[in-house]
Amino acid sequence: MGVAQRPEVLPAPGLDARLALVLGERALHVNGDLQTARRWFDAAYRQAEQSGDPIALALAALGLGGRWVREHRTSAESERVRTRQLRALSLLDPSSPPALRLRIRLQGEDDYRNGTHAGTLRLLREARDSGDPLAVAEALSLAHHCLLGPEHAALRRELAAELIGLAGVTERRGDLLMGLMWRTVDLFMAADPHAERCLEELRRLLREHAYLAVGYVVNAVEVMLAIRAGRFDEAEKLAGECFERGVKAGDMDATGWLGGQLGAIRWFQGRAAELLPGVRDLASSPTLSPVDNSYLAGLALVAAVAGDHRLAAGHLARVRGRDLADLPRSSSWLVSMYFVAETAHLLQDAGTAARAYALLGPYAGLPVIGSLGVVCFGSVEHALGMAALTMGDLDLAVRHLRAAVQANLALGHWPAAALSRCRLGQALALRDGPRDGEARAELAAAAREARDLGMTLPGVVGSVAGGVDGRGGEARRTCRFHRDGRHWRIELGGRVAVADHSVGMAHLAALVAHPGREILAADLAAGTWSQEGEGSSAQPVLDDVARHSYRERLTQLQAEIDELEEMNDLERASALRLEREWLVAELAAATGIGGRARPFAGGEERARIAVGKAIRRALSRIAAVDPVIGEELRASVQTGLRCCYRPR
User: What positions belong to coiled-coil segments (predicted)?
Assistant: First the structure.
């Protein structure tokens, strides 16, 4: 965003410290290029150290701090910069302006790491008394960063306004842009209906001249707005572009923000279970902020959605600690609490839900926004409603969820509105019965909205179900299959399992799609069964997908057999050879002259055996991912000459 910048010249050996400082200041305060600024300030520090220039050393150490708090995320790099700043401070007159600025930076880092702010606010007052506008501007921005919890909204707006006004005194373009950026973020976090006006003002300034650090935040807000509008494909594309700009700017949050954006997209799509491996890795990333617990809470939620309740309970306990109230009130606190409320609901943990409800209560009117406008999960009212639902207080749940629908509509967050409407319909059905007119109307409206947005809505969970289907019908433990490339997503009673595609999985999906209907095994194998009749025996034994899957498995088996024979593991190789011979026989039976598919002609018994084995293998795959879903399907799927799915 903005005009193109000239490529920066890399620091050269022996470069004068004062020149390196000028170039570093330009990169940081004019262009917002954090990565380039770090290189110039590092070069300036080294040269100042060699020449014994304490002022240049202090300014270089200040510049290494960057624009944000905790800009250096790994422990080694963070401590290295801190040591340089302390050394520079020790060489200065304690009453000098550079010494005050260094103390402000060091205090801001300490406060942020400890989840406090009193020290930085004290030094802000000292900076105002000193009359040094640079010290005041830096203290304002650092204090704002240490006050990103929801309880400090009014104070943040005052700090941002003061920084915007002070930019005319410091004459640093970066101060004006940072002040406007903070004000924009504050307005979004307060659900101010005019937040986008401030965003547009920021866009116009950035079009005049790019400032990478702030431009990256603007890009992230644009991803959030695309998710709110339900434009998931566009949002995912924008998230990738945003990540690239973050890397270019040298922002250490680039990876974490991308993870949050993709997580929000998948959550509203109903595909959160797919995120489990990635979130597991990201939750332990050293690039995350030390006060950010949202990824740990997100891991608990994703595990619960995927059906791994043991993993979910373990990570929820880590987030909860001795008391949920101990979680630092950072910019990710509301997101963490939203995840806690949703996870507690999936695990039916009423105690954790009650604690989350008590902590979230004062912020019911706010949106759940993570970091600097990176993601939005809708109104806090939704999390309160989910907590009340888990606690079993249906009147309270209905009240909060009804408020959540209205708040999400006001935000223009269509996916969150659909999700809250779905949960409202479920709560009404639980309270007033599944035939209640309002419950049916809300569930039907939610289903229409979800269909238009490409969302999959959740069902009623666990013991709160009380005879109600979360989608508006009588309660039945009905399973649902969704194909996504080479994977299947299996849903049952709020549980979700993701398994690889196979021929048997396709057979199961066909049965589950029509519960109670008997389908000939021969027609399942052919993949061309008809709802109007019982099918024709003159259909292909295996469809193209099945034959392709069989051939892929043959290739895999041969490679495994060869490897086992080289290891002299003849017993396991023999077992795999039996499976290979069976697959060869199946393909031979299914293939006619010229490789064409051979139709079944009275081969019902052969179809019964093939389909039965394929379905049993698929059930084993599902059970390995989620034993509960696997057991339920084993109990409700009948195989034989005629196959049927009869939900219990």
Answer: 547-581
Which secondary-structure segment (H or E) carries 637?
strand 637-638
By DSSP bridging, strand 375-379 and strand 479-484 are unpaired
Distances (CA, A) of 241 to 213, 247, 248, 254, 609: 15, 10, 11, 11, 51
Determine the Cα–Cα distance for residues 195 and 527; give it in Å rounded to an integer: 53
Long-range contacts of 430-434 (CB under 8 A, 24+ apart): 430/389, 430/394, 430/460, 430/464, 430/465, 430/466, 430/468, 431/394, 431/395, 431/398, 434/467, 434/468, 434/469, 434/472, 434/473, 434/474, 434/475
Report the alpha-carbon distance of residue 465 to residue 346 in Å, rounded. 12
Structure tokens given for 87: 């050394």
CA dihedral 596, 602, 603, 605 (to 10 degrees): 160
Q: What share of the chain is helix, strand, coil (3-state, %, to 5)?
A: 70, 5, 25
Tell me how far apart the alpha carbons of residues 332 and 194 are, in angstroms, rounded to a whole number.
23
CA distance 505 to 630: 12
- Six-digit token pair at 525? 């194998």
Q: Which of 358, 351, 398, 360 is nearest to 379 (CA)?
A: 360
Q: Tell me the longest C-alpha to C-alpha distance in the chain.
A: 98
CA–CA gap between residue 583 and residue 610 (Å, rounded): 10
Q: E strand or H helix at 173, and its extent?
A: helix 173-189
Say which residue the tokens 């109670």 belong to: 516
Residues of the chain with pLDDT under 70: 1-15, 73, 461-477, 494, 527-554, 565, 568-603, 648
- The string of pLDDT tens digits covering residues 81-139 is 999 999 999 999 999 999 999 999 999 999 998 889 999 999 999 999 999 999 999 99
In three-state secondary structure terms, 599 is strand
Distance CA 455, CA 460 (A): 16
Residues in the chain: 648
- Interval 438-476: pLDDT, tens: 999 999 999 999 999 999 888 776 544 444 444 433 344
- Return the number of other C-beta atoms located less than 10 Å from residue 354's C-beta: 16
| CB half-sphere exposure, 349, CA atoms < 13 A | 23
Q: Please spell the DSSP secondary structure of 248-288, one letter per residue.
A: HHT-TTHHHHHHHHHHHHHHHHT-GGGGHHHHHHHTT-TTS
Give the pLDDT of residue 206: 95
Distance of CA 296 to the CA centre of its chain: 11
Is residue 339 a contact partner of residue 382, using CB atoms and an 8 Å limit? no
3-state secondary structure of 480: strand
Write out the two tokens for 382.
């939704």
Q: What backbone torsions phi and psi does residue 528 show, to the nearest 5 degrees?
A: -130, 30
Question: Looking at residue 307, what is its pLDDT?
Answer: 83
Q: For the beta carbon of residue 61, count every other beta carbon within 10 angstroms.
A: 27
Q: For residue 369, what are the β-bridge partners?
A: 376
Rounded CA-CA distance 109/112 in Å is 5
